[in-house]
Automatic annotation (TrEMBL):
Species name: Streptomyces coacervatus
Chain intervals for the UniProt region annotation (Disordered): 1-20
InterPro entries attached to this UniProt entry: ArsR-like_HTH, HTH_ArsR_DNA-bd_dom, WH-like_DNA-bd_sf, WH_DNA-bd_sf
Domain HTH arsR-type: 15-110
Compositionally biased residues, Basic and acidic residues: 11-20
Domain of life: Bacteria
SMART domains assigned to the protein according to its UniProt record, in alphabetical order: HTH_ARSR
Gene3D superfamilies, sorted: Winged helix-like DNA-binding domain superfamily/Winged helix DNA-binding domain
TM segment ranges: none
Name assigned to this protein: Helix-turn-helix domain-containing protein
Length: 113
């Protein structure tokens, strides 16, 4: 009997460079509270130290995956696979070069009323 090999290979995620992103796409990606939480948590973490499942957000796995697709498409996040985990980094320098000051505005604490 032949042994089956694991078919858990995932396709590498596609990444959009911030230079190829419109301001409308960037703003739309940052308009969602879950995505802002993801960006803020990434901004406070070492690069490549956060796996997708390590974020404290109130959504399921499928929704979380969708949010990361949107963030990658907006040039905000880069992901790579490390063993069974997909780890993330905020493309802060690249995004800042494309949209100076925008990420700093998003990362500010929300003002109290």
């Amino acid at each position: 009997m032949a042994q089956r090999t694991s078919s858990s290979h995932r396709a590498a995620p596609e990444h959009t460079h911030p230079d190829d992103v419109s301001v409308q796409t960037a703003l739309a990606a940052l308009a969602d509270p879950v995505r802002i939480t993801l960006v803020r948590e990434l901004a406070g973490s070492q690069e490549w130290s956060r796996s997708c499942g390590s974020f404290d957000v109130p959504v399921g796995k499928a929704a979380l995956s969708h949010h990361f697709v949107v963030l990658r498409g907006a040039g905000l996040v880069e992901q790579r696979d490390e063993g069974p985990k997909r780890v993330n980094r905020l493309r802060r320098a690249e995004f800042e070069a494309r949209f100076p000051g925008l990420l700093d505005l998003v990362l500010r604490d929300e003002p109290t009323a």
